[in-house]
Amino acid sequence: MSNPSVEPIATPQTHLWDMSRPLQGRAASVARAFWWLCVGLIVVMTVIAIPPTVQDLRQVCTGENCNPQQPSLTQAQTLAAAGISLDTVATVSILFSLLPTLAYLSVALILFLGKPDDKMAYLTSLALMLFGGVTNSNLLESLVVSQPIWTVPFIIFTYLGSILLAAFFFTFPNGKFAPRWFRWVFLFWVIEEVLDVVSGSPLNLHLIPEEVSNFGFILILLTGIYAQVYRYLRVSTDAERQQSKWVLFGITIALSSLLIFAVLIFTGVIDVSNVILDLAVTAVLAFTLSLIPISIGIAMLRSHLWDIDLIINRTLVYGALTAILAGILAVSSDLSKRFFLAVTGESSELAPIVATLIVVAAFEPLKKRLQEFVDRHFKYATGSFGAFGEELKTFLELNDPDELARRFLKESLEAFGAGSGAIYLGRGTQHRLVKSIGAWDGHAQLAVPLEHAGVNVGLIALGARNNGIAYDADDRANLAQTGDLVAHAIQLSPRIMSGEHDASSSA
Question: Which CATH architecture fits 25-305?
């Protein structure tokens, strides 16, 4: 049977704001020049800001009007009692302050260099660079107070970083607002941020009350998250849903850590006046906040996106397991102490040992029960190549190439949102139709051979997407990567190569 023909995809006229079109020509040159200008200024400003910040952290404040970064006399005495010098604190504080910034800038650079013609990647890299390098940087906020010459670029970058990051959450992953009325929420944010930036440090014009500013931040945060959830449930293809999972995963971890520490500080469990505890909190937040750009970078690069299902599954299991075991340890330790005190009239060193043994005994059965619960209620996405990849092992046991081909076609149509498609098996160019789905007419808009180690065992072809978006090089690479695994599995079956399946088995 002859192979399907691949229809050339009509290319409409490029529009500057059409995120599906590549960044080309003069617009691309201007955009890249602006990107390098921004990153150059941010690096220079950050380097300049480090020495005065270190000097403040090393200088003990003995008066009333102190810089917030300066340690108080009580804090200095606490550090001295613990054998920690102010130089060490200054170094550690700078490292923790720079960690999220470096994460944002690194991911921005990878996206910018890795996808130079992708408009969505450019918007994302610029948003991450400006937000992580300026808007979210305490170092640069201190710099403009001591050196006003940097006020103008600081204000511009702070504003752009804030609105571009909001634009990312409203339009990711395809660059379009969904639902469309979200553009009015975004317009509100654009106007509100102008007033907010000039109202705060260093200009301090106070054009809007702090309550309005806080309301605007909460509104844009909640609507941005809602936009991703709405898109995930109603708009996105399966591949785009996997991208959204990565983004929401990083945001959830970061916001959860912020919320937990805010509650602990507000209730007095954590005393931030204790400089050692404050450093510990800063360290944890630095790592968790770095997950936001990292998760966005993984989602944009679209490599092995299915792994997020396994990560979420394991996070739920081991996160719940850790919390429950910690509670068991605390309760059993207290009960053990009370028991020995009641029996012997004094405390015993056996109490913590007994508590530990209880935790060890509870670990495995509790883990098993949690894993069963999570697997039952939070199953891996069946519309992803990840779940399909995990089932290749099952195919090897069934030894049925045609069934594997049918399943691969079904998964491919769901992953890419295609309306039709077909899969063929056979040696070289002599392929037989195994399965077709939808109104398949033999005309493919995306077709890749099933090859492993240079040996061709078939071909998969997909028709146009239901949402009308054209396939790109990443889609082809993703399909070919999984096709390689399928081809390898088929090669391990003697049935396909021996010709046991004939044309009569076609479905």
Answer: Up-down Bundle (1.20)
